[in-house]
Design a protein that fits this description.
By secondary structure, the protein is an alpha/beta fold. About 30% of the residues lie in helices and about 15% in strands. β15 and β16 form a beta hairpin.
Length: about 550
């Protein structure tokens, strides 16, 4: 590899903005906060980019970079499940070929930075630093490259909380974004790639951690825009493609606690005292709060606070936000034992239930099927009957205002196809306009005020500018699955016939071919409690 610092020229720069969408970007355009992004949108062509179901980071980015639906690539959620046990997903769970590996097979080099679910990295022509679901200081490709990046750039981090700034501070966001841009540019100088893909996660995280905080949102986007401006100036890309995995917006409808509904309908059992399965928090302590260590507080005070929090549905999920919601964050301190949190709430008794929601970001329900789950309660002969009953019951659910809770409740086969459909939830639940939060909590009424005031929407955004793009072409109907075949077409690389998307009309479509079966690495566990804590902080666990 070349260690020179000469300016490079990318054929294609893909910029991933997690959760970006028109309702978020338009006010920033109007205020002049993001001139570089605005120029890409206004000089090129742009439009909505429909995400998949579920429109959540861990499943959507693999769909984008493989061009295939979760039934083919195998990732449906931040978690993978084995019976009632779980693990955080990583790249070994992605069972289809990433586009940069496909490009590598055709002699095209790439630099990939911060794309979610790419750890551990595989060999290809280029360099990769993984993004979300990777541990801090992850293994990168080539080996040892992260140490070089840190020496050249001063530091690097995947999560702002790993740095010296206070958790969720604006300065922490800005520094993380700055390091992201510096690392990408350093690798472009070193590798001199044809293809570059840099992703910014804080455009999503800021809405989960500081919902409605306009100052923080604008600061995040200003820094992203600054890094994009420097990157375009230094790498001089022929073409720029901006993409997002989903949208973001306020949640104005109520929260629907679907497991509570299933309990009332007789499908689900529950346990108290932290005995439910699976153990949703492997780590002993939750490090997400601010203030003094909980060890400095009396145990009785913590128990009192946890019991109070449980009355409004606090579980190990979103501990910091939840305690703040009930005005208990400051008295409790920084470290709260998860066992105490769990003991104050109810959990699903998975082995003794017929139907349940395992994870809210899976957007679906699992049937406890005999012969598949360790303690299956539904016989194979009754599977379709039970599934149809639950689908019909949920389709009729209305909010307290009389509005449908769901746009669709359907068998998984309606949304997924491929060899890994059996890992999908049996029933897919699509909230109405994603304006009703569907959660897995127990111990409260079926409906209540949403714990999160902002959450994902299905429509993201795409914009393209450059000499290879037909900037007069419309992008109506673009989907997340179209990005990988569009990248292939720009490089005149044959499109994998198994991709679910098609080339966007901005570039001439290349040929299609059937590639040899992909041979991914054996699935390995993500053994890092900090990753779990980070996902919990963002409300995904």
């Amino acid at each position: 590899m070349d260690d020179s610092t000469d300016e490079t020229g990318l054929s294609l720069l893909v910029v991933g903005l997690d959760a970006a969408c028109r309702p978020i970007l338009h006010p920033l355009f109007e205020s002049g906060a993001v001139p570089t992004l605005q120029r890409v949108f206004e000089t090129g062509t742009s439009g909505p980019l429909e995400s998949q179901i579920p429109p959540w980071t861990a499943s959507a980015w693999p769909s984008m970079y493989t061009g295939k639906n979760p039934g083919k690539h195998g990732v449906f959620d931040f978690l993978s499940f084995d019976g009632y046990d779980w693990d955080v997903v990583n790249s070994t769970h992605v069972r289809e070929r990433p586009v940069w590996e496909l490009l590598s097979e055709h002699g095209i080099s790439s630099v990939v930075v911060n794309v979610p679910v790419t750890h551990p990295s595989r060999e290809f022509d280029g360099a990769l630093i993984p993004g979300m679901t990777a541990p801090e200081d992850p293994d990168c490709h080539p080996e040892g490259i992260l140490e070089d990046v840190k020496l050249a750039c001063g530091d690097y981090r995947i999560y702002p909380q790993s740095g010296p700034e206070p958790d969720r501070s604006i300065e922490g966001y800005e520094r993380t974004i700055e390091l992201r841009g510096k690392a990408f540019r350093y690798l472009c100088r070193r590798i001199d790639p044809d293809f570059g893909f840099v992703q910014f996660q804080q455009t999503d995280s800021v809405f989960h951690e500081r919902p409605g905080d306009k100052k923080a949102i604008e600061a995040v986007y200003r820094e992203v825009d600054s890094q994009l401006a420097e990157t375009i100036e230094e790498t001089d890309p022929d073409n720029v493609l901006v993409v997002s995995d989903h949208g973001m917006g306020p949640v104005s409808g109520p929260e629907f606690r679907i497991n509570e509904f299933l309990r009332d309908e007789g499908y689900l059992g529950a346990l108290k005292g932290g005995e439910g399965m699976p153990d949703w928090s492997k780590a002993w302590e939750n490090d997400l709060l601010e203030g003094d260590d909980a060890g400095s507080n009396e145990t009785s005070a913590i128990e009192t606070a946890m019991n109070a929090a449980a009355k409004v549905g606090v579980t190990t999920q979103r501990v910091a936000t939840a305690l703040d919601y009930v005005r208990l964050k400051e008295p409790i301190g920084r470290r709260v034992p998860n066992d105490m949190i769990r003991a104050a709430s109810e959990q699903v008794d998975f082995p003794n239930s017929q139907v349940y929601m395992r994870s809210k970001s899976e957007l679906g329900l699992r049937i406890n099927l005999e012969g598949r789950e360790p303690n299956g309660q539904v016989a194979a002969s009754e599977y379709e009957q039970v599934r149809d009953e639950v689908i019909d019951n949920l389709a009729d659910v209305r909010t307290p205002d009389g509005e449908p809770v769901f746009d669709a409740v359907a068998p998984r086969e309606v949304y997924f196809d491929g060899p890994h459909v059996e890992h999908a939830p049996d029933i897919v639940t699509v909230p109405a306009a994603f304006d009703t939060a569907v959660v897995a909590d127990l111990g409260q009424a079926q409906f209540g005020e949403p714990m999160e005031s902002w959450n994902h929407k299905q429509t993201g955004v795409v914009a393209a500018a450059g000499e290879a793009f037909d900037e007069q072409a419309g992008l109506e109907g673009a989907t997340i699955f179209d990005i990988a075949p569009t990248i292939c077409s720009l490089f005149d690389v044959p499109i994998d016939a198994a991709m679910d998307g098609t080339t966007l009309p901005i570039v001439e479509e290349s040929t299609t071919t059937e590639y040899p079966a992909y041979e991914p690495a054996p699935i390995t566990a993500t053994d890092d409690s900090a990753v779990e804590d980070r996902l919990s902080d963002l409300g995904y666990l």
